[in-house]
Amino acid sequence: MRKITLTETVALLLENDNYRILTHTYPDGDTLGCAFALCKALRKLGKNANVAVEGDLPAKLRYLANHYREQAFTPAYIVSVDVAAMSLLGPQVMEGVDHIDLCIDHHRVNSVEADNIYVDPTAAAAAEIIYEIVRYLGVELDEDIAQGIYTGVSTDTGCFCYTNTTERTHTVAAKVMGYCNWKEINNINFVLKSRAKIKLERMIYENMEFYAGGQCAIVYTTLSMQEALGTTDDELEGIASIPRQIEGVKMGITMREKPDGTFKISVRTNDRIDAAAFCARFGGGGHPAAAGCSIEGTLGSVKEQLIRAAEETL
Amino acid sequence: MRKITLTETVALLLENDNYRILTHTYPDGDTLGCAFALCKALRKLGKNANVAVEGDLPAKLRYLANHYREQAFTPAYIVSVDVAAMSLLGPQVMEGVDHIDLCIDHHRVNSVEADNIYVDPTAAAAAEIIYEIVRYLGVELDEDIAQGIYTGVSTDTGCFCYTNTTERTHTVAAKVMGYCNWKEINNINFVLKSRAKIKLERMIYENMEFYAGGQCAIVYTTLSMQEALGTTDDELEGIASIPRQIEGVKMGITMREKPDGTFKISVRTNDRIDAAAFCARFGGGGHPAAAGCSIEGTLGSVKEQLIRAAEETL
Fold first, then answer.
1. Long-range pairs for B295-301 at CB < 8 Å and ≥24 separation?
2. In which band, very low, low, confident or very high, does the pLDDT at B203 lie, cut at 50, 70 and 90?
3. Interface contact flag, A208 B191, Cβ < 8 Å
4. Which residue is closest to B189 within chain A, CA to CA?
5. In this predicted model, what pLDDT tens digit does every residue of A209-241 receive, in sequence order?
6. Looking at beta carbons, which residues of chain A come within 8 Å of B160?
7. Any chain B CB within 8 A of the CB of A190?
8. φ and ψ of B148, to 5 deg
């Protein structure tokens, strides 16, 4: 395990061949965008390269593999992209893999066990790093590479809206958008909503409750709601950001019933309210503005505990 | 009336003094962002400059005038920004104005009667033009100028998501974001929702109906709904984009009851369905993907006509 520079990373990619590129479980636009972009760049250098994905590609992101066909070869050099920890590498992705040669990532806390590690936490998306790597590899941009990079930077920043966006994010977008159908990519990732998602949002708005003089908003989904709607895990994850968006709300709490008798709690805060400290009261943790925990009990009893804690905090 | 170049525009701004900068009615982030940014730039050159706004500043955008104080002088040089037609200049803005010296705009169709006209329709926002002007004026960026430009480019492109976004939009954002609190600007313009707006969206989802095998979605707001919710005109305008966002919908129709016994109809389409031709059947018009018309009648009768026309079109 040694930390290496961008130049050393590029040198390793130029020296080796027969790449297997690993993506993280519950693959998102950044890990997949990076993997397919890097794969195409390596193939353009005459090398063999495949992408390893756990399960099926999410339907939304299938366009990333539009021109991709698996190659037949024995993997000799293993690279992970946008993977922060070994636990995020699923069994299918790790099939036949006994060690990782190179880890390319942007997460501040990275615990991947790899021979060589290049982590740049100033990148809003790992795709910003892949953009630089492609440039240093001397590979010309094409649609496959550009759409992978654009998908990574746009999805990891909520279309350039989240606070992790930087000047570099915009600059990378400006460089790649001329080579891909970014209008359709935005439409798929940021505009279109499934009818199940519309119904889910409507239910969320219907059961939203306000406490602490409107400073705390709580919403929930029960198992029977989830079943009735047929929403995906991805769609359920997305609702955590809804309650905090409301004017005057400093703490948005989302409760999601799990089959094991617990509720998965997501807390999002504004105005320097410490979400991690709040969740630590229930044995959870996370970041100052986004944290989580699990609480056992009925909808009523769990909500009761959360309201009491929120009123004490606010 | 003569069309001039960017260089000539900058020369005129350097030569003259005592500026009144005109913004359009129902002022948005682009016209106001441009006006306050240009005003500050001219003041930094030692000139007198004021911004003219019709009515109050929208509450959301008040931050644009955080450091602005009106100066006392007699206006001698009149400049309009982001104004496409004389009818968009309100009586308060035009008080004491008998002619316009300079029109700076980005609308492809511009009919402002001004001595000098600089229109660049390749700019997604007029603020992209103001960015160039500030640079050529030799004025250094500061918070006031940067927040005006960032507000203009981000609001006119739906935070870099709409199809009018270009490489230049991203490049301008990258150049100005280091000088202003763009995180808070995004929060105000793209994240926060009023409780009235949440209620409005919930009502819209509740009354949404699908026709033509799910290809057409129709929503409506009646006068009594609008009154009960207390939503602003701006919030009501925003709902026109909702029905088209749903997967499978090719034509989204929004009906808004007006006090004069008519319904204001907004039509948004995907997949090359001609919204303008659709609205022309009812005496309206517009763009291929976004058009409108007015229809007299009850909710039931107007909806009936729209459904019949939609089923014929799809």
1. B295/B262, B295/B263, B295/B265, B296/B261, B296/B262, B296/B263, B297/B262, B297/B263, B299/B220, B299/B222, B299/B255, B299/B257, B299/B263
2. confident
3. no
4. A161
5. 999 999 999 999 999 998 888 877 777 777 888
6. 159-160, 170, 173
7. yes
8. -65, -45
A106-141 per-position pLDDT tens digit: 998 899 999 999 999 999 999 999 999 999 999 999
Q: Which long-range contacts (CB under 8 A, 24 or more apart) does B57-60 make?
A: B57/B27, B57/B32, B58/B27, B58/B28, B58/B234, B60/B188, B60/B189
pTM of the predicted model, to two decimals? 0.90
Closest CA to A176 of B98, B167, B163: B167
Please choose, from the candidates A239, A253, A243, the residue with its C-alpha nearest in 3D space to the C-alpha of residue A311.
A253
Please give the structure tokens belonging to residue B185: 């600007």
Give Cα B307 distance to the centre of its chain. 29
State whether residue A281 is helix, strand or coil. coil
More confident residue, B9 or A194: B9
Q: What percent of chain B is modeled with pLDDT above 90?
A: 82
User: Distance (Å) from the C-alpha of residue B48 to the closest C-alpha of chain A?
Assistant: 33
The pLDDT tens digits for A86-105 are 999 999 999 999 999 999 99
- Residues of chain B contacting residue A193, judged by C-beta atoms under 8 Å apart: 245-247
Instruction: Say yes or no: A160 contacts chain B, CB-CB below 8 A.
Output: yes
CB contact under 8 A, A161 and B201: no
**pLDDT the model gives residue B237:** 75
* Interface residue B195 vs chain A (CB under 8 A): yes
DSSP strand E in chain A: where? 2-3, 19-22, 49-52, 77-81, 100-105, 114-119, 209-211, 216-221, 251-257, 262-269, 285-286, 290-296
Which residues of chain A are within 8 Å of residue B194 when distances are taken between CB atoms? Answer: 246-247
**What's the whole-number mean pLDDT along residues A163-180?**
97
Name the β-bridge partners of A295. A263
Contacts of A168 in chain B (CB under 8 A): 174
- Give the per-residue pLDDT at B202: 85
Taking the C-alpha atoms of residue A62 and residue B162, their distance in angstroms, rounded to an integer, is 22
Out of A171, A194, A198, name the one closest to residue B205 (CB).
A198
Please indicate whether, in this complex, the C-beta atoms of A195 and B170 are within 8 angstroms of each other: no
State the pLDDT confidence band at B231, using cuts at 50, 70 and 90.
Answer: confident
Answer whether A141's CB lies under 8 Å from A176's CB: yes
Q: Is A183 an interface residue toward B (CB < 8 Å)?
A: yes
The token duo for B31 is 């016209």
| Complex ipTM | 0.89
Give CA–CA dist B281/B300, Å, rounded.
Answer: 18
Residue that the structure tokens 């058009």 belong to? B291
**pLDDT tens, B238-266?**
788 899 889 899 999 999 999 999 999 99
- DSSP string spanning B61-124? GGGGGTT-----S---EEEEES--SGGGS-TTTTTT---EEEEEE--SS----EEEEEE-TT-S
